[in-house]
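Researcher: I'd like a structural prediction for the single chain below. Treat it as a standalone chain; there are no partners to consider.
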Amino acid sequence: MDRQGRAWPAPPMIEFIRRVVAEAAWPGIVVLVAHAVLGELFGHEPYVDPAMHFLGGLAAAFFFMRLPRLLPGLLGEPTPAALCLLGGALQPGPSEVRNDAMVLGDTLHACTFGEHGR
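Model: Treating it as a single chain, here is the predicted structure.
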């Protein structure tokens, strides 16, 4: 705040991140929090994990469908069909990164402790 009590303007990157969260990333954040809370309450398998992974895929598709509107100069003006294809094509990416991270974690755990982690 300045001496007159006015808030300083947020840097452009902070404003962009706020906009991305408000317009595209909020479903993923909701799913992540719900997964953590419901997993603790009910146990992750066999009920919570499959439902949350499905909802996480929908959240990822939503994010990738909304992202071109937040970066208008990058992809121009995609049609609704192109947005759907973009969301469907990019949606498996975060799931694969998560699975690869789990395999890497299990491998490192096995190499460190001599046993399989999961």
